[in-house]
Specification:
Elements (H helix, E strand, L loop, with lengths): L4 H15 L6 E7 L5 E7 L2 E3 L2 E7 L3 H8 L2 E8 L4 E11 L2 H10 L2 H9 L9 H14 L11 E6 L3 E6 L7 E8 L2 E7 L2
Helix pairs in contact: 4-5
Length: 192
């Protein structure tokens, strides 16, 4: 059994990138509000390592507000082509301003403009309203750099647990659980 969950994740992620037809970086993000009501959506993994798994979003979005009220999250990668999934649970914290700025600068200009134009998760009276804001934002930054909006941030989920699930015949799936402790990671098997 592997003893380092990050090495195992790197291996599985590399294999998923070779075989998964669409977005191997896609992961389900589960959050809960202050009352414990859960919500779930897909986001994209934009960085990972022993310090955690990173995604970016609008801090004013539903997920941003839920993480402000309850800073714990769960992530799920499902790689159907590999018949595997990885579940990650832990606290979510903001990435540094420098890290958010660097990633924002790497995005396409249209995506940068969209981050300014969209009031993510708020009610929209019409598609025309969003397109108008986009065109106004495009004109505002014509010929210049598009700065990162202060509400557009990154979150890092620092895992307390990482579970690796592999499909096996007769529904006797393999589940390997890594739990973080004061002396490092403890690995165990779970019943399917």
């Amino acid at each position: 059994m592997a003893t380092d969950p990050f090495e195992l994740f790197d291996q599985w992620f590399a294999e998923a990138r070779e075989s998964e037809p669409n977005d191997p970086e896609a992961m389900a993000l589960a959050t809960a509000d202050a009352e414990g009501r859960p919500s779930l959506r897909m986001v994209l993994l934009k960085g990972h390592g022993p310090d955690g798994f990173v995604f970016y979003t609008n801090r004013r979005s539903r997920k941003g507000e839920e993480l402000a009220a309850n800073p714990y999250a769960a992530l799920l990668f499902h790689w159907k082509s590999r018949r595997r999934q990885v579940r990650i649970e832990g606290p979510a914290t903001l990435v540094s301003v420098e890290e958010a700025d660097a990633y924002f600068a790497s995005r396409s200009r249209d995506s940068q403009l969209g981050a300014w134009a969209s009031n993510q998760s708020s009610m929209l009276s019409s598609r025309a309203e969003l397109e108008k804001r986009y065109e106004e934002t495009k004109a505002k930054y014509e010929g210049g750099e598009v700065p990162r909006p202060p509400h557009w941030v990154g979150y890092r989920v620092a895992p307390l647990s990482i579970e690796f699930w592999s499909d096996r015949p007769h529904r006797l799936h393999e589940r390997r659980l890594f739990s973080a402790g004061p002396d490092g990671w403890t690995a165990s098997l779970l019943n399917p």
